[in-house]
Amino acid sequence: MNKIIYLAGLTLLSVLPATAQNTVVDSTATLKDQTLSDVTVTARKASVRSLSGAINGKDILRDELFKAACCNLGESFVNNASVDVNYSDATTGAKQIKLLGLSGTYVQMLTENLPNFRGAALPYGLGYVPGSWMKSMQVSKGNTSVKNGYEAMTGQINVEYVKPEDPTGLSVNLYGNTVGRFEANADGNIHINGNKNLSTEILAHYENNWLHHDGNGDGFQDAPKVRQYNLQNRWFWKKGDYILHAGLSLLKEDRVSGQTPHAAATNPYRIDIGTDRYEAYMKHAFVLNQEHATNIALMGNVSMHKQQAQYGIKQYDVNEKNAYASLMFETNFTDEHNLSAGLSLNHDYLHQTLTLPATAVPSDYGNIYPLTRGIESETTPGAYVQYTYNLHSRFIAMAGLRVDHSNVYGTFFTPRFHLKWVPADFLTLRLSAGKGYRSPHALAENNYLMASGRRLIIDKLDQEAAWNYGASLNFNIPIGNKMLKINTDYYYTHFLSQMLIDYDSNPQELHITNLNGKSFSHTFQIEASYPLFKGLELGAAYRYNLVKATYGGKLMWKPLQSRYKGLLTLSYKTPLGLWQFDATAALNGGGRMPESYTLASGERSWAGSYKAYGQLSGQVTRYFRHFSLYIGGENLTNYKQKNPIIGYQNPWANSFEPTMVYGPVEGAMAYVGIRLNLGKRQ
């Protein structure tokens, strides 16, 4: 089956140039909607556009997201050269973002500009946002505005959902793939009594991954069986100069993994994680002076995340509560001068229980964990002020300062500065510098580590702090009647204090400890895009990561981190917009594996490094008046990491290690889906 998928994928990629045709409208053109008898011509904005302010980032719209299956947030970065999404281990299905060569813990996650998916939600939060619910996504590099807090150390990802006040309609998305995964999504809204100032919306999601798939024959499922129910209700109300957004969401997820039924007739190693999550949010905005864009806003969200997890004989339960509120004031004194100021309050509460049942276990399992019960609680009020000088959008300087006080870590200051300069129409320069902080929750954020048989040691951790500096150059070079777009950027992150997961010092232990030495990241990236002809867009990118930290007194390359990445994208849409073809090829560079140990045979337990590997994905979409059909494939090169689970023969031993994952665990996969659009919703 895998060979068939592989050949089909190569065939798909090879026919793209042959099917290329001219399109009627360039993708970057701006047109008003026009109606000609029974034919409607709809203007489409560019699917990826640079953020207009001083911060270096991209605004990714639905057209770009739908170039791949985009089942959830974690699968929305296939075409993104800056963001990597990797499995954290080979058993639980936990995923993490990597930006600027560093873990996603240093990327601030926002949903509609409200911090979200913290603590225990971090390992699986990328699967909590269905792709069809997203209207757009903003990805920013480096330190961002102080408005959203002090946590964005390497970047920020903000998700905008479809809105209740959008044109009314109903959208349905159905998806299935060859490894036993089915998804159904729906979103619909109504304007109550035909009143555009009062709207409500329902978002619904169901997911079921039911197969015991074991493509590498190690007796463990390549991906967990996941069943998820996700429901959200959102409201919009506008009266005069007052605007309200509010909503509730409920999520229930069960994921089961471990040894397949035929691999262990008795005493199988199982992983069972049950999650219940509840969220509520509200956003109030008052326009005080429209001429000067003077407004005041009060917004906040609360969440409760309850998780019960079993990893073999280990049981980890966590009940996490978070509350966040922000009061913001903003005004333009003149067209050039903007001032923003505000207050914020964040509260995190985690109640955790970790136990080993008092049952007989194999003698070589060892004393891995003691009985642990713990409460982590932190309350952090803060205030900020930010000034922006904007000279006709050609020169923008933005400076911000936050002061926050944590009942755990004390008072700390967060300065940030951004500069944008457009010396010529074809060139844009951006510079940034700033500091970021983060309060670590070692066990909750890294609970997938409990799948390992190693002894887990957690030190008392300091607050993390880092400086980040960045520079970028954007070129728009006219070639003929088309535009070649080139973007280059460089970022340097320097940690003053950091939580490190030390795989190296002792092969029998996983040690979560404080940085004792240097830790830094250098990232250089260049990307370019060019419309070869109308309708056919070609993109290419290359990124180099130099990421090192001190482990056991030695400055070493960060393990399981690819040192470079190359990306090539091709997108073609036929003249009438009926067919769309998209393909992506990625080359992920090699990297360092953690320090190994010597087996009784004299051989090393695993190789000291891994080599580069390539991946291909492609999708074909056929558009109809009220629906579209799409079919595609992922990882069409069928590359799989060899032996992603160390010691799979005896999962009860302390040599069992499923967390050293650097590449795909699953092989080639094909999928098919349908998107229905009933009404005017876009």
From TrEMBL:
Keywords linked to the UniProt accession: Cell outer membrane, Membrane, Receptor, Signal, TonB box, Transmembrane, Transmembrane beta strand, Transport
GO molecular-function terms, A-Z: siderophore uptake transmembrane transporter activity
Signal peptide boundaries: 1-20
Gene3D superfamilies, sorted: TonB-dependent receptor, beta-barrel domain (2.40.170.20), TonB-dependent receptor, plug domain (2.170.130.10)
Biological process annotations from GO: siderophore transmembrane transport
Membrane topology, as annotated: Multi-pass membrane protein
GO cellular component, one term: cell outer membrane
Record keyword RNA-binding present: no
Ranges of residues in domain TonB-dependent receptor-like beta-barrel: 230-636
Annotated localization: Cell outer membrane
Predominant location: membrane
InterPro entries in the record: Beta-barrel_TonB, Beta-barrel_TonB_sf, Plug_dom_sf, TonB-dep_rcpt-like
Protein name according to UniProt: TonB dependent receptor
Species of the source: Prevotella scopos JCM 17725
Record lineage: Bacteria, Pseudomonadati, Bacteroidota, Bacteroidia, Bacteroidales
